[in-house]
Amino acid sequence: MIAFVRGVVSSVRPTEAVVDVGGIGLAVQCTPGTSAELRVGAQTQLAASLVVREDSLTLYGFATDDERTVFELVQTASGVGPRLAQAMLAVHSPDDLRRAVAMEDLAALTKVPGIGKKGAQRIVIELKDKLGGSAGAIPPEGGRAGTPSGGWPEQVRGALLGLGWSARDADAAVEQITPLAAENGHEADVPSLLKAALRTLAK
């Protein structure tokens, strides 16, 4: 079991980072919020969860132990795999997910791409007694992400599609955050722009 990953950030993309651990580059799947806190060349430590499949080994990284705990817990619900669990944490914080499940807030849960009304009802039923209080955090070391390759609109759109949003929703979100990118001068800060895009889609 891999509990955490510590090393130097080699590269950052909206939903993935490569961390150099003892000369080995580990590809770590991250939420946009986690990616936004990483900086190329800086030391970082991420809580980690290794998902083993017959044909793949996928490492997921999180800014806190609490995020990892929720990521693993939500997968105990029927129909929730690691990609959907990651999308849930991309849209909602761990505490927001706990609140949504505790209050049976189906509207909040269905804001996550891939979760419909019936899926939200099933998640509430199966997780209501499992999601508990916050766990201790492993804070990331480092600031903003480095500049990823490619233009930010393509990067953000591709990340949204990867998280399960439709092409139409992704295009609309990119259009909505374009003025923000120009206004704040964050055209190349893709993780932060992706977070802004997710906020517009969650409204």
Automatic annotation (TrEMBL):
Domain Helix-hairpin-helix DNA-binding motif class, residue spans: 72-91, 107-126
Keyword annotations of the record: Cytoplasm, DNA damage, DNA recombination, DNA repair, DNA-binding
Keyword Transcription regulation attached: no
Gene3D superfamilies per the UniProt record, alphabetical: 5' to 3' exonuclease, C-terminal subdomain, DNA helicase RuvA subunit, C-terminal domain, Nucleic acid-binding proteins
SMART domains noted in UniProt: HhH1
Gene Ontology CC, one term: Holliday junction resolvase complex
GO biological-process terms attached to the record: DNA recombination; DNA repair
Keyword DNA repair attributed: yes
Domain comment as written in the entry: Has three domains with a flexible linker between the domains II and III and assumes an 'L' shape. Domain III is highly mobile and contacts RuvB.
Assigned protein family: Belongs to the RuvA family.
Subunit structure: Homotetramer. Forms an RuvA(8)-RuvB(12)-Holliday junction (HJ) complex. HJ DNA is sandwiched between 2 RuvA tetramers; dsDNA enters through RuvA and exits via RuvB. An RuvB hexamer assembles on each DNA strand where it exits the tetramer. Each RuvB hexamer is contacted by two RuvA subunits (via domain III) on 2 adjacent RuvB subunits; this complex drives branch migration. In the full resolvosome a probable DNA-RuvA(4)-RuvB(12)-RuvC(2) complex forms which resolves the HJ.
Main function: The RuvA-RuvB-RuvC complex processes Holliday junction (HJ) DNA during genetic recombination and DNA repair, while the RuvA-RuvB complex plays an important role in the rescue of blocked DNA replication forks via replication fork reversal (RFR). RuvA specifically binds to HJ cruciform DNA, conferring on it an open structure. The RuvB hexamer acts as an ATP-dependent pump, pulling dsDNA into and through the RuvAB complex. HJ branch migration allows RuvC to scan DNA until it finds its consensus sequence, where it cleaves and resolves the cruciform DNA.
Protein name per the record: Holliday junction branch migration complex subunit RuvA
